[in-house]
Queue: 2 jobs
Job 1
Amino acid sequence: MKAAVLETINAPLTVADVELGALSVGQVLVRVLVSGICGAQLQEIAGNKNNAKFVPHLLGHEGCGIVEEAGVGVTRVKKGDKVVMHWRKGEGIESDFPSYVFRGKPMRSGKVTTFSEYSICSENRVTPVPADAPNDLCALLGCGFSTALGVIEHEAQVRPHESVMVVGLGGLGACCLKAARFARANPVIGVDIHDHKKEMVAALCGGHFVNSAKEDVAEALKRTLGMPGVDVVIETTGVAQSIANAIPLLGEGGRCILVGQPKPGESLELKMANHLFGSAEGKTVKATQGGRFMPTRDIPRYVRMYQSGLLDIENLVTHRTTLHDINGAIALLKSGKANRIMIDMAA
Ligand SMILES: [Zn+2]
């Protein structure tokens, strides 16, 4: 089968033949239909995830596929099931690391990977969904969209008509804008350094846009929206300066959720730290791992919400590509011009 392999840190992926190893206890063989590309993979390609020692290895952690074979001990899925492939742990067996063969040598990989035509996954990294759940929705629920919904629901606990500001409008930021709208946040403000994101903010959530490279965000909040601070800031860039600038924008009782991770070893500055105490409630700065979404509980629920019209994924996927052209898609993602890019594995 074909797969995209990270052979060398900071180099294009190698699209090549990779052989599947045997399934061990608790493993599931999945035929991948579509996979998203997430900022975490850019970090892995750059070697920022402490992963340089594991190369060559496979990548990708949000996908949709069909179960081809269930290994010994697997009870939660069976051959023919449609599944969401996700990086957070759900219920089921936590298996050993899957094994493959690449260039004649054994290659281990993570418990879920999606940049390949077939993938061996740990049972607890796949969640069955109805056969008619749209493939793109399922892939988005593997990471980006579930993280965004979890951040809004579990971490920020957004109430209707609270203000939500999303800083950094890549794929995850786009998902956060959508999730904020579904929570009936108002206003929703998107902050980025690229002007073309203005249309995207309008299309995704009907919200306001501020270009932080051109104007002072605090000034823009006051001038355009007439508000001194916001109830919720969701910081997706992980850039230390961006985080430092965002935290002082919190209003009374505000919550700043850090989704993007600073580089290893980097420090953060708390500007005018006294403001965090506020005058009545105090403010919260919280780092989250994937919005604490729980795949077994939340993914089927999000699919039901979609099917009943409470969620949509319009304008989240802006580009499609094939496994063969994955390096072009990675360059596009780095350029900031895409929201989510879907890889069609069978194409
Ligand atoms: Zn991700």
Job 2
Amino acid sequence: MVLVPRVVPGDLLRIDQLAKQRGVLRATAFAVIAPSPQRCEPACAVFDECGGCALQHWSLDRQLQWKRGQLARAVGLATEAIELDPVQPRGHRRRTRLHLRPRNRGLGAGFLRAQSDRLVAEAACAVLAPELEALRARAGAALGPYLDRGELHAVLGQQGVIADLTARHIGAEIPQAQVLAEQLGVVGLRLQIGRHADRWGLSEVDLAEVDGPLAVSTDAAGFCQASAEGNRALRRRVGEALDRLGPVQHVQEFYAGSGNFTGLCLQRGATVRAVELDVDAVRRLRRAVAAAGLQERVEVVAAQAERAADSAQPSEIWLLDPGRQGAPEVCAAAARLRPDGLVYVSCALDKLVRDIAPLLQLGWTVQHAALIDGFAWTIHLESVVTLRPPAVPVSL
Ligand SMILES: C[S@@+](CC[C@H](N)C(=O)[O-])C[C@H]1O[C@@H](n2cnc3c(N)ncnc32)[C@H](O)[C@@H]1O
């Protein structure tokens, strides 16, 4: 096998030079002799240099079919059985981390070249929401007099964009956060430039697509699902998964964040034990639960999911949404404790395969799987997979 960058299935290639790197053969010089009909024009002017979207040159439809096949193989279902939620990639990202680096004798804001600490050339980002793209375009000029490198986290919520700036101070005296926020066009700004710390405006915004009973909010550097459209699809699929397993009395929710899926369980009449490690997310979730007067029905546990997954009650559904690290310990606990069903929301297919393998060995079955293409133009995919234990426990 030879790895060749930025080609698509059906390309006819001439490989001129190979190199072996860490046991893998890679083409270091090659030419596309006859391009595949699956190719398309990349949406972004700096596609060739940016380390962000790797698949812009491959037709979206083909990418989706490829991802569908990957998920089908991973969970052992027929490709046609995988339900699909495409997400239009243009302008969909509502959170970002912009790198601030020197560019053209000034300061630039944007993304880094692949495997480099240098920014790509100045160009509008095709995937950022217009409000975040406007922030990116303004940031270099607004911040250039005060810093030469840093990071700007930003998120777009119902109230507008809030940002969190950490940077190295050079040059001019730093104005108040409010002045910089107005120049950047954000409704809230927290900054740490060298030793200078300040904040102004909102520190959290709400996710507009979340309907009750719990409001879900996020700060600029915390976690929220990357796009409103993708999250709408995720929430619909998680709701359907709960209904398929229902009626649901009690849900053990792991990796609950600020409660994005907690409200879905409540809508179905369930009580919830929501486990989350991040203290800010826990605080936001507890606040939302109190504001809705639902303390009787939601227990928010600030703990590592791995540690919290050691008890199960009767008639219980487990809902987990780990990050890219996956949740092997939680799935191992499910194999031991045998809840009535498990809904796994995954953003890392390899970890999903690894984590559910012990359950499948014990006779669990994948009841349903949906693919949400929340990271279109990249190799990543999100999925909602529903598993049920065997009627009679299997011992190995
Ligand atoms: C993919 S996010 C999902 C959050 C939420 N379900 C949502 O949709 O917004 C994963 C969450 O797991 C939390 N987390 C990471 N490691 C954890 C651990 N070991 N135990 C519990 N929570 C953890 C993160 O803080 C983050 O909020």
